[in-house]
Specification:
Among the domains are: 220 residues, no CATH class; 45 residues. Helix content is 38%, strand content 20%. The chain has 9 helices and 16 strands.
């Protein structure tokens, strides 16, 4: 993800105070929180967990030291009492979350006796309840250092609930891996069989078939080998045996096993809807490019765009909770009402740099704002903010130069008509 817009206003600069309106100020503030929590890199882990497990989570709270909301990533979907997070939905309205529960175990390397104790935290819209498991297995109320009450109040200055600070990033359709685990296991098994077959029958062998009694005597001890008990075979060496026939066993045809392996790859590509060239090496003319690549990746791009919609709404919910938390525990936030947050994503389509440049040039001729033109070219909000800052600095220099010229022109106009400027002569004035 590349940024946020608030009520249609995007980030204007890294400096909130320079933003022209409250909505743009808030968008810039969101981006500052984003950078302060290092989410630019952590979001990769967040999305991969959602794709792998079907769900991942973020818990939003207040970081007193940094003076901003804190976003903490969680991956595990809890069982009844297993570590992880569980959302409890209204049985009559699945979209309405009643409360969230987080199970975890304590870890204190300096006090081993306190390690491995199970904890439970329940997040309700207006309060937070903490529990610890007693020795008999029962849940007991618990207060961490710094907690002022039990349960913790989770309301704003007017007493309104701040909301459940647990945000779910749910992958549409669940885990991307669930449907291909069986096929992947079969592919792994086929690879092992192919390697074993290559080891045992992938090379030609020399066979000696005895027609009567005879042959090599059994060797009881490798350290006591008589000359006649060994058979040395090497290139250009003549093999001479008695009462036997020497013939060559050709290498086995491994192509059917190779085709079986490729069939499993094709099946995985079909089930996962991932282009097959992502799953096996390609080269030469087989490498798709241009319009062919765009067509082949259209299904994958569509899936990415669907997840951008779902994950974008989750980010909007997370930022709305963070905004409410910051207004309660922080100070100086711009008031924006009603609040409409949208996530900005980088383009999921395969980019054609020349085509994008031509589109941007057409936009420029039509008078489309520079922000749209820059976004079309793939520049990030940080890049765009830098462009605007540079433009403002250049404009300030130009305005200062014009103002200087006008000031000098004004001084010249104020001189009396009969006055003449002094003439420099022989190092002096007259």
């Amino acid at each position: 993800m590349s940024g946020f817009t608030v009520n249609g206003a995007g980030i204007d600069d890294a400096d909130i105070e320079d933003a022209p309106e409250p909505a743009a100020q808030l968008a810039a503030l969101f981006w500052r929180w984003w950078a302060g929590n290092k989410i630019d890199s952590q979001q990769i882990t967040l999305y991969r967990r959602a794709l792998r497990d079907g769900k991942s989570y973020i818990i939003v709270d207040w970081d007193e030291k940094k003076g901003m909301p804190r976003f903490t990533l969680h991956s595990l979907d809890a069982g009844d009492v297993e570590p992880g997070i569980m959302l409890h939905h209204d049985p009559e309205d699945h979209n309405r979350i009643l409360y969230a529960t987080r199970y975890f175990y304590t870890f204190d390397p300096l006090n081993p006796g306190r390690t491995g104790v199970q904890r439970k935290t329940i997040y309700l819209p207006g309060e937070i309840r903490k529990y610890i498991q007693g020795k008999a297995g029962q849940w007991e109320t618990y207060m961490d250092s710094g907690d002022l009450s039990w349960p913790l109040s989770w309301v704003d200055a007017q007493g309104a609930p701040l909301g459940i600070p647990v945000i779910e990033f749910e992958n549409p359709g669940g885990s991307e891996m669930a449907g291909i685990i069986g096929l992947q296991n079969a592919l792994n098994k086929t690879w092992l069989d192919l390697i074993a077959a290559a080891d045992t029958s992938g090379f030609p062998l020399i066979a000696i078939e005895y027609t009567t009694e005879g042959g090599f005597n059994p060797i009881a001890d490798d350290a006591n080998i008589e000359g006649d008990d060994e058979l040395h075979i090497s290139p250009a060496r003549i093999i001479q045996v008695d009462n036997a026939r020497v013939h060559r066993l050709e290498a086995a045809n491994l192509q059917p096993m190779i085709e079986t392996k490729e069939a499993f790859v094709q099946a995985i590509a079909g089930v996962s809807r991932i282009p097959v060239y992502y799953l096996q090496p390609v080269g030469g003319a087989e490498v798709p490019s241009g319009e062919a690549l765009k067509q082949l990746e259209s299904g994958l791009v569509k899936r990415v765009q669907e997840r951008q919609l779902v994950f974008g709404q989750a980010w909007a919910d997370a930022m709305e909770i963070a905004y409410n938390i910051a207004k309660t525990f922080g100070a100086g936030l711009p008031e924006v009402d009603p609040l409409n947050i949208q996530a900005q994503w980088t383009d999921a389509n395969v980019r054609n740099e020349l085509q994008q440049a031509q589109v941007a040039e057409a936009y420029k001729r039509l008078g489309v704002p520079d922000d749209v033109v820059w976004t079309t070219l793939g520049f990030t909000p940080t890049d765009i903010a830098g462009f605007k800052g540079q433009a403002r600095r250049e404009e300030a220099v130009t305005v200062a130069a014009i103002a200087g010229e006008l000031r000098r022109a004004g001084l010249a106009a104020q001189r009396p008509a009969d006055s003449t400027p002094p003439v420099q002569q022989n190092g002096g004035t007259q």
